[in-house]
Amino acid sequence: MDDLAAALQEATAARPDLPLWLTGNGVPAVEDVLAPLGARPAPLTLRSQRASAVALLAADAEPVDASALTPVYLRLPQAERELKRKLEQQ
């Protein structure tokens, strides 16, 4: 959580004018910790990780180059977690 908070603090310092939306099913676990950084939960109807939800959240934002967008994941994808477990068992 500390690493995530530090990464978000760095991102918001670089672009304080952009909103920081929390999406996905992990929002309840992190929203209180990340609220001081300006992070706020996306509305429930837009919280699922769908392209349409991201587009609606970004509708009021200033356009940015796609290379400037960086997702922040709270955990490794399932395939990577399973591979890591498999390698640890060997």
Description:
This protein is mostly helical. The chain has one domain (2-89). It is 46% helix and 7% strand. A two-stranded parallel ribbon has the order 1-2. The model has no long low-confidence stretch (mean pLDDT 84).
N to C succession of SSEs:
HEHEHH
- Order of adjacent strands in the largest pleated sheet: 1-2
Compute the gyration radius: what is it? 15 Å
How many domains is the backbone divided into?
1
> What is the molecular shape?
globular
- The termini sit apart by 29 Å
Specify the helix fraction band: 40-55%
Number of strands: 2
The average pLDDT score comes to 84
Poorly predicted regions: none
Major sheet size, sense and barrel closure: 2 strands, parallel
Total of DSSP H or I helical runs spanning 4+ residues: 4
Output the structural class: mainly alpha
β-strand percent reads 5-15%
Q: How is the topology of this model organized?
A:
Elements: H1 2-14, E1 20-22, H2 27-34, E2 39-41, H3 51-58, H4 78-89
Parallel strand pairs: 1-2
Question: Which structural traits does this protein have?
Answer:
90 residues, mainly alpha
Summarize the structure.
The protein has 90 residues and is mainly alpha-helical. The protein is 46% helix and 7% strand. The protein contains four helices and two strands.
